[in-house]
Amino acid sequence: MTWKRKMTLSTLAAVLASGAAAAVPPRPAADIGLIGHAYAAGSLPQPGTIDQALAQLYALHAALLAGDPADYRDVLNFREELRSLDPAAEFALAAPVWDKIQPKLAATEDLEFIKSNLFLLMRDTIALLYAPEASDLQAIRSNADYRRALVPIVRAGGVDDLTMDEVVEFMYGNGAGKRGVEGTIREFVSRLSQPELMQLLFMPEKRNELMLRVLTDMLGRTGDYAFSRMLQAYGITGADLVKVLGNAQERLQLEKPAGTALLVALMRMTSSELVKVGNGGRMHQYSLLLNGIAAPEGAIRWYKIEGDDDVRVFVNGLVTIPDDSAAGSALLQAKLINPYGGPEKIVFEKRITLSAESGATPSPSPDPGASPTPGPGTSPSPSPDPGASLTPGPGTSPSPDPGASPTPGPGTSPSPDPGASPTPGPGTGGGFPGFPGFPGGGFPGGGTPGSGSGSGSESGNAGPGSIAERIRSIVEQYIARIEAIRRELAASPTPAQRIALIREAFKAAQEALDAIAKINLTALEPDPAGLSGIKWDSADALASLAAVSEAAASVKSALEGLDGSGSDLTKKLRVSVQLDAGSAGSSWSLEVPQEALTAAQTSGIQYIGLAGGGAQVSVPVDGRSGDLQISLTHEDDSEVRKATDLPLASGGYSFKVRQNGQASAAAAKPLRLSLPVSADSAGSDLLGLVRIRAGRAVDFQAGTVSSVYEADVLDSAAVYAVVENKVEFTDLANAKWAETSIQGIAAKGIMTGVAAGKFDPSRSVTRAEIAKMIVRAFNLEGSSADIAFKDVKATDWFAPYVAAAVASGITNGRSSDSFAPGAPVSRQELAVMVTRAMQAAGGYPALTNPDAALAAYKDQASVAASLRPGVALAAQLGIVGSGGVLQPAKPASRAEAAVILYRTLKQLQS
């Protein structure tokens, strides 16, 4: 990893605390629907004397002490690591500067004395950032050895005299007209836009660029700073100083957690909430402001710490009380996702109250079409999936798979840490899940676009603030990120690092496309039934689609050829437009004119989506014609609870898709459904998407989980909800190493028991069972192919899964006319199947040298030649392989299959 990628976060955090908020003007609190303030909670005045120049840092550390004790320990530990540096052993860190100073010093000078004290001065000055104390500042200012070491350097640099106060002044300002390095950073930060500030917080290369600009600016101020005049006389540049700082970061192992701790303290000091109120006061949508700038939703999660049972808090900041509640209170917390891993950090806390507005009576949710949840007494339709599990109640074991093979397969088991995800290679940082450093919030629109910057609250199609300008900003940031990854790939990474870098690039591309896709349109005010509608004007639609299509082409172009294997990573990217109707009301609708649908199809747009109330449904446009209508409804929780008594992790939602007014209960291609997950359930391995039809739970579907649960679905006549589905098995005493994986996979309906409460973990898994597991794990039910296997009849429970697996390229028959559904599956066959599924999902490259990737395993020679690439990829991702062995030919047990599938899904979410 290069020093550019490790630019100090703590330096930036510390200097930001010195008053960046003071540069942010208060925003009027009269915005309709807003409560509270849209500016930083407090500004920090500039101190009046140099002895008070560190007062801002004292305030930062007061905030640090008020937070997590572990954060304070991280800072103290780093300060001790910094102080432990030995000048004799570590002076090479300062070589970029010293190499320009030494040639100008007289030969009679005591170079070792100068070097040692110059190093100690640098060390102690930096240490002030981590634990500022007046005694330490005074010790620097009065240190005779530091003064003696600087005298020959100052004089050789053409400066008559330089006091220690002037050195401190260069770093921290004088509390008056001179800002110093920290004040200049503060000034530069105050000019940043929201996207630029988010990049600065989350992208190391952007912090490096800022420091370089600041130091270059400071070195040019020779009339203000004697220290600048001296450095300029030596030919020392801003790049030299940044290189020294970068060297120190490479050497010091504890700076990252210390820097994160200071950043969290800074956020805690300057954070405030922004609230949108809806549903007659019973719904609040919270977002967080940092220095008066909106924080990205993907970086912040919201939680209820305590409060009334009626108050529900979702991780995306949505807070609700039931329609029959007059009020509810709770202690609300916002937490920052730690960019270096580890626990989330509290950056905001407040006690809140939701109160129904006087006279506000919520109306029942509308039914824009046929009711997906018939009332009591209606005969439930039979499950269309005879092999799927039904788990309507907690603790109930799913039904067995018919046709399962009873052949046991004793042998060693995989690693007892099935949940451990492989360590990513360099380059995997730079963003938070769901937010890659791109501007969020979508792109304003909704009126007839102009050629300039738009008018009122609307943006035009060109010029500052326009859709085109915002999209261009996203693409530029994305391309810069891809170029950085290309540089990492050119540095000969290990196989595991190469996979991680390519995966990072693919995810960056998808995140850029998702950010480009968001379009905020003004929805109609909810009608008495709670319906908010959007009519997408044809002119607006065509302009927006053209902008998204052009940007998508640029995103794909930057990704082409990245993995060096000739494969096209761009084929798996999803290109969409997503129209957000806001959070008001309980049902939302979108009308897409035929012209827009045709334009989407011809310009490479694959999905058109509707978002409302934190949920979202995306409809594939291929094969559709005429006007398109999409509706999304938040169903009453009572309807979901009639079908299942499992704990709810989201509300229940239904959707309808109409073509020229005609509804269809089944989709030819999967739709993408995204539901907000409650904060107290986020992160649980036991979440599953339950499908409810005719008032009963039909089955569960797998998906990816963050602050939302995303899954591909086919049934548009169902109600969907995320539930916590803990399935208990009584026969796992000898398979404790796999219990977490088994429960996680069973929760999503991917695997089922063989009888009530029985999993039979040691029995070998069959080819038919694996076909079903992988199809359900990757939501491939929408794929199908004509199959001519003599041993697979159309009436067999596994027939649709075999057809889907073959159509998706996951597996083939044992011969042209035989699938061998009851035959056991070897570990190497299973590894290849899951890696094919991962590559079909996108972002996982083919290995150019599988033999090298397998070299560390003692039994790698036993891997079949045709299966080596897939096994090597699975091994590098940590999906298979333990203790230096692969056991490739061993039949996979049901427990091993659960672990491998669990690890695979974890890898997809990492």
Polypeptide structure, described:
The chain is of the alpha+beta class. 36% of the residues lie in helices and 16% in strands. The protein has 27 helices and 25 strands. It has an eight-stranded mixed sheet. Strands 12, 14, 17, 18, 19, 21, 22 and 25 form an eight-stranded mixed sheet that branches. A hairpin with an 8-residue loop joins strand 8 and strand 9. Helix 17 runs antiparallel to helix 18. The longest helix is centred in the middle third of the chain and has 23 residues. The radius of gyration is 30 Å and the shape is globular.
Structural class call reads alpha+beta
Number of strands: 25
- pLDDT below 50 for ≥5 consecutive residues: which ranges? 1-51, 360-465
Strand order of the largest sheet: 10-11-13-15-16-20-24-23
Report mean pLDDT, rounded to a whole number.
76
Q: Helicity, in percent?
A: 25-40%
Q: What is the count of DSSP helices, taking H or I runs of 4+ residues? A: 27
Strand count, sense and barrel status of the largest sheet are: 8 strands, mixed
> What is the CA-based Rg, rounded?
30 Å
Overall 3D geometry? Answer: globular
Which range does the strand content fall in? Answer: 15-25%
Spatial gap, N to C terminus: 20 Å
